[in-house]
Amino acid sequence: MTAAKNKGIILTGHRPTGPRHIGHLVGTLEQWAKMQDDYTCYFLIADLHVLTTDYKHPERIQKNIESVVVDWLASGLDPERSTFVRQSALMEHAQLALLFNMLTTVSRLERVPTYKELVKELKLNPSAGTLTYPVLQSADILIYKADTVPVGEDQMPHIELTREIARRFNKNFGETFPEPEGYLSKTSKLPGVDNRMMHASYGNSIRLEDSSEETGKKVMRMYTDPNRIHATDPGTVEGNPVFEYHDVFNPNKDEVEDFKSRYREGKIGDVEVKKRLVEALNEYLAPIRERREEYLNHPEKAIKILDDGTESARPVVQATLKEVQEKMGLQ
Ligand code: TRP
User: Fold this and answer.
1) pLDDT of 118
2) SS3 string of the chain?
3) pTM score > 0.90 for this model?
4) 277 — pLDDT class (breaks 50, 70, 90)
5) From 320's CA, which of 68, 103, 194, 248 has a CA 20 to 30 Å away?
6) Is the CB of 46 under 6 A from ligand 1?
7) Shortest-distance Cα residue to atom 5 of ligand 1
């Protein structure tokens, strides 16, 4: 067993944009849950980051934080072993970001792919907060001196920036920060029930909070091979979300292979394949739903976990900020 002090440090998190779905579960949350034994983990509720693109709905934020924390707990993130943190409650995150802004050029930030995409997509005049989004993220990571950051592919450029900031800081002010590594989830992205990218705003996700009935309805309406009219037509398995879901959620691999070959030969109907998927998915989600129950009527328990975690992180972020302020000549 590795002594606690030799463990690597993980910082990762989500923007609290609403309930988590099965894409979050198999893409990130299961992986984070597994890493808790081998790393000292900080799981961040990045509420300041929400404001970089949407400050017009203040009434949603606390509710969304609550549902993300409940879904995290249900997915096996364990506050006994890991620390949950509310970003906006530790001003040290924002303070460190301000100092990192001094080390970062505007042109570098304008080259960040997520920023370029956002500007193109929203066709709006980006705020300074949007431009400096990845600097705040770098501060989130480096304030814990994290060495490992499990994130999705789209976040990798932010980790690269974090490494640059760490390098620049160390070069100018002396060795202070590790250069953290991004850690990609191995699971490929689960499509939505309509076969587009799974996204809350597309209404095509299965949420952890959905009942088994709701889950069943969504699966039965799921996109499948559009060229197959009759159950006797040969069907396509590749790129068919029904089978992608079977691969992930159905533990009976022989059954899945049997379904696939019969589907290709036109010897099984979509309804039968989907019905089994409903059962498998509901079984898979059962323990998560059970854990969710505990907080359903007591969301304040989840909020207390978040706030207790935040308090235990406070001395850690204070120490790093103090060190930075001293090195930069502010103290
Ligand atoms: N930008 C991340 C996202 O949109 C959320 C986030 C904020 C984050 N700070 C972080 C992720 C620090 C990892 C590390 O998903």
Assistant:
1) 87
2) CCCHHHCEEEEEEECCCCCCEHHHHHHHHHHHHHHCCCEEEEEEECHHHHHCCCCCCHHHHHHHHHHHHHHHHHCCCCCCCCEEEEHHHCHHHHHHHHHHHCCCCHHHHHCCHHHHHHHHHHCCCCCHHHHCHHHHHHHHHHCCCCCEEEECHHHHHHHHHHHHHHHHHHHHHCCCCCCCEEEECCCCCCECCCCCECCHHHCCCCECCCCHHHHHHHHHCCCCCCCCCCCCCCCCCCCCHHHHHHHHHCCCHHHHHHHHHHHHHCCCCHHHHHHHHHHHHHHHHHHHHHHHHHHHCCHHHHHHHHHHHHHHHHHHHHHHHHHHHHHCCCC
3) yes
4) very high
5) 68
6) yes
7) 14
